[in-house]
Request: fold
Amino acid sequence: MWAFSDESERAGLMLVGVVLVPPGSVQDTRTALRGLLLPGERQVHTAKESPRRRRVVLDTLAGIDELTAVALRYRRPQRVDRPRARHLLLQAATGLALASGVTSWVLDDQDPVQRARDRASIAHALAGVEHDLRPTYDHRPSRDEPLLWAADAVCWAVGAGAEWRRRIQAVLTVRTINP
Reply:
């Protein structure tokens, strides 16, 4: 299984969306997502799309047979800073990756400091796991990986709730993370 993840925050609710796709379906799924690009676009970013386009993006995700998505939610208390909350979410995402048999994990690119924190969080979660059971993982710019657009859309839909979340309910599981 391959995983692709992105994160989002709305009013203290932090989300990490993890999209899971079997290796044999990755290329077809990328092709389907690239088909969503409008002329001149390099990527799909759900928050910047019109409501009509959001519906198209979410309906496309919900219609991809081999795709599943998990949204990890953490309500960040004021005493917990953003890096600590992200650490907790990445620990949970790493556990999800291991439980799902993920062999390759792509995370949305971050600034160098956050990227180093992410790698440390994942390495911490993988401590004690046999080397051959560990996924390879890396950060990539979302413009280079269409499946990161899917993870972005999952975060956006869960954060927006109501109709938007219902549109991807067929492929979505939401898990609340408690420290």
